[in-house]
Specification:
single chain; alpha+beta; Jelly Rolls; Arc Repressor Mutant, subunit A; 2 domains; four-stranded antiparallel sheet; 8 helices; DNA binding; transcription regulation
Length: about 250
């Protein structure tokens, strides 16, 4: 018996389906919002239109940005101009804490929809973290972020692009979804080229995969064009794709 065949459905999903820690980030925002809205605290408030970049590729301003509303994708551009989306962040999540002074950023933040950000200087962040409760939530959110990044790497290492797209849709349903019975309507509309940049394939193959998912009743399009996903069927498909027994 192989190691893979002994894995339970729960353990596989725990590894592969990328935790976000949304409750922690909400608690973090609640803990620091009063300070951020104080006139005495220097912050940078930014409003981005859909598709607008926060800064040019490779640049950084040394701030940590908190998403008040909207969504941000973290993009990376290769020397040849190939675009990769490293992650898509939603309201109450944050980014920029890994940018060191004097070093170029590894990603370029871009708004996926109309987005409002609050930028915090590192000195302000350090003072906020002196509060034991804020520090505890921050530390746990950082642990979950690290685990999320490992999960994304694991997806690319052991899953093909079609399975990665299914996992991507589950992740988006978790972060941007509205439940309607057994289905979840994904409120964030992405282009085929965006999905391609997230899973490492071509736009045409994304179209092929989405059609297969539609044929298998994993997804459907709503009247407004949004994707409506059936998480139960998608999970069953992922288990099948990985050669694991279906959830019982």
């Amino acid at each position: 018996m192989t190691m893979t065949s002994t894995r339970t459905v729960a353990s596989v999903l725990d590894d592969m389906l990328v935790p976000r820690g949304s409750e922690l980030t909400v608690r973090l925002m609640e803990g620091i919002k009063p300070t951020l809205h104080s006139p005495a605290v220097p912050t940078r408030r930014v409003e981005l239109a859909c598709g607008e970049l926060l800064h040019q590729p490779g640049a950084t301003d040394g701030r940590v940005y908190l998403i008040e509303s909207g969504a941000v994708c973290l993009e990376h551009y290769s020397p040849t101009g190939r675009r990769t989306i490293l992650d898509v962040l939603s309201t109450n999540e944050y980014f920029g804490e890994d940018s060191l002074p004097g070093m170029p950023s590894q990603y370029t933040p871009a708004a996926v929809t109309a987005t409002k950000l609050i930028g915090v200087e590192s000195t302000v962040l350090h003072s906020l973290l002196r509060d034991a409760n804020v520090f505890d939530v921050w530390q746990h959110s950082q642990i979950l972020k690290a685990r999320r990044h490992r999960s994304l790497l694991l997806q690319h290492a052991i899953s093909d692009s079609e399975a990665r797209l299914a996992m991507c849709l589950l992740d988006l349903a978790q972060s941007f979804g509205t439940s309607t019975g057994q289905d979840v309507r994904i409120g964030l509309k992405l282009r085929h080229e965006d999905y391609a940049a997230m899973i490492g394939t071509t736009r045409s193959r994304v179209g092929l995969f989405l059609q297969r998912f539609t044929d298998r009743k994993m997804i459907r399009k709503s009247s407004c064009g949004a994707i409506v996903a059936n998480p139960r069927i998608i999970v069953g498909y992922i288990m099948e794709r990985m050669g694991l027994p279906p959830a019982g």
